[in-house]
Amino acid sequence: MYRPSSVWILVLLKVIESCPHDFFEASEDTCLHLAQPTSQIPKEEYCNQKGGELFGRPLTPDMEDPLANEIAMAASMWIPNGAYIGMERTSRLDFGRDDDTWVFFDEQDNPFPESQYTVWATFANSGEDCAVVGLDDNLYVSPVNCVNTFALLCEKDELPCESPNLYYSNYDGSCLAVLKDYKSYENGLTSCPDGHLMKVKNESDLEEVAQAFFNGRFFGGVYIGLEKKNGKWQYISG
Q1: Which of 44, 145, 148, 236 could potentially form a cystine with 56 if both were Cys, beta carbons 3.0 to 4.6 Å apart?
Q2: Buried b (16+ CB within 10 A) or exposed e, 25-44
Q3: The whole model's pTM is what?
């Protein structure tokens, strides 16, 4: 069963000339480490194993940009090169025939002309009967061969977004998750836990797609040792 866990920030005061491996320099005297420990290892124990302590004090202005840059880099390294959406050519299963109409996976009675779909990065060639979104085309929709394997852009129809099998996040009322479980389109149709492949219908959907891609790496947020105790917020270091 899928168990989501947050991404922790671990801080180690710099007492040597350079930061240890897996750490980055956040300020003149502070090295930080971004990690996603397993649910079996408590965050404090994980920090001890890395030779530091859990971050638990306010961020100073000189630390904000280095931390933001590190988070952005970690997110970009995590993002898959493409993710299937729930759209296919109407003739997908009619081998040897290319139709110029497309349908969303559960709307077989409502085909639409390829030329009227406004979110294409480029029109489809022969044999490209399925579609993905990815950073190479600024998250616009690109046609692909359905046997190629990609990640999955999953959507859960019903609120709340919580699911025991996949961490869906709420983006303006849409429950979305990027599942890095590389599948062909046919296998991907039934591989979104408690959901289905997202139907990207127009450009207004692209903002939600972008949020799902860029926030997916840190779905649990970034823990900085700020906790609420007895009704008051305080850092764990006091």
Answers
A1: 236
A2: ebbeebbbbbebbeeeeebe
A3: 0.71
